[in-house]
Amino acid sequence: MNEYIDELVRDFPTIATAVNVGTSTEGRPIRAVRVSKNNVANRPLVLVEAGLRAREWISPMSANYILHEIVEHYYEFEHILDNVNFLIVPLVNPDGYEFSRTTNRLWLKSRSVNGNGCFGVDLNRNFGHLWNTVGGSNDPCSDSFVGTAAFSAPETAALRNLIQANSANLALYLSIQSADQMVLYPFSHSATTNPANVAELRNLANSVALTLMRQNGRVFTSGGAGLLQTPASGSSIDFVAGTVQPDLVFTLETGAGGNYGYDVPESQMAELLSETTYGFLTMAEYVANNK
What range(s) does the Peptidase M14 domain occupy (predicted)? Predict the structure, then answer.
């Protein structure tokens, strides 16, 4: 992934720029790519984050495939790139991702040392909006460990700083996860609490779900995150919607494959990556036309 980022910014310098987001617990760089046609700064911004959870390999792959499309095939997306900038973080949790590749395929968390032989924080329970109020665990050995405080993980703190530094132009925030086949909008902490523009969110989520279903026939559902999934606080989308408050905040849960949903076999990878990208492009076109 790092080699691919280097290649993109080398080959497409008028569109793609590498951004250092921060450093993981074990010292790995967390990197992003800013995509801006002719480096025009003040367009509406779409910020995409992927790879919060280690075992969801299809998530960072989706972010990289999106980069591949909008940068390497930029000429197909002139209308979008004339009107929208992108900031894409393909892998927020590089330590957990490497651990899932080398040691434990089912690993979910980061790799912070918690003591008593326990490691890691569920990064999607560690963000600062209503942190540790519902759906997480205070057990350092649990897969849903919320951390010792909001943003106690360097990975979430780095992403928070990136979000806040780019808040002025932020029009849409997207978290790519796997693999519940859903398009979700805030809030994830509650089945009944919605942003003020819930009608707009619902309409766009429905459009994206329809786009996704048209690709390969997989069924995608759309709705409030806390309604369609078990309510949980400390998510990235709740932090963005609850504090920065751009108009549009979503989680896209990719198509499923393999034994667990997120362990997509290589034979299905291209199909799922293309499918997810079409869903993303529906959101990007909406921003280009409306924001």
Answer: 1-287
Helix (H, G, I), strand (E, B) or coil at 188: coil
Q: What is the CA radius of gyration of the chain?
A: 18
Question: What residues form DSSP beta bridges with 221?
Answer: 182
Q: CA 230, 233, 183 angle in degrees (round to 5)?
A: 55
Of 59, 174, 57, the C-alpha closest to 107 is: 57
Tell me the pTM: 0.98
Residue tagged 């924080």 (tokens):
121
Q: How does pLDDT run across 158-170, given as a tens digit for each residue?
A: 999 999 999 999 9
Torsion of CA 200, 205, 211, 214, to 10 degrees: -130
Given a contact cutoff of 8 angstroms between Cβ atoms, the answer to whether 20 and 31 are in contact is yes
Q: Which residues are catalytic?
A: 253
CA distance 184 to 225: 5
- The domain 1-289 is placed in CATH, from the list 3.40.630.10, 3.90.550.10, 3.40.50.2020, 3.30.930.10, at 3.40.630.10
Per residue in 207-228, pLDDT tens?
A: 999 999 999 999 999 999 999 9
